[in-house]
Amino acid sequence: MFKQISGSIGSIIASICCLGFAPALAALSALGLGFLINDAILIPLLALFLGFTVWGLLASRRRHGINHPFYVGSAGAAAALVGIFVFMPVHILGLVSLIAATVWDIVLLRRFRSSCEPPEK
């Protein structure tokens, strides 16, 4: 679960920086991370975080056995990565579907975990 959440948050931060959101760029500069405000660094970083999220979805798919969040998350990650180059609304739609798949997966993991607990005596 940590993999999906951290990957999703990292993807959102990298996307916000790629889109040129001024407060995020100012915060990075204030923290001394101004070198990150470069598409040559941000796009591979975005791809890394998207891959980290999909990897987390794959790992949790093995636990609860439901494939749908993994498929939605994979399609969302692909759309987010392609959309950054092609059409920004596709990128945003991909991120939204990736976050939705992560939330869906977390709900499934909690439901699976609660159904596998032994009954109390």
TrEMBL record:
Pfam families: MerC. The chain crosses the membrane at residues 12-35, 41-58, 70-88, 94-112. The keyword Membrane applies. GO terms for cellular component: membrane. InterPro entries: Mercury-R_MerC. Keywords: Membrane, Transmembrane, Transmembrane helix. One of its GO terms (molecular function) is mercury ion transmembrane transporter activity. It comes from the Bacteria. This is MerC mercury resistance protein. It comes from Mariprofundus micogutta.
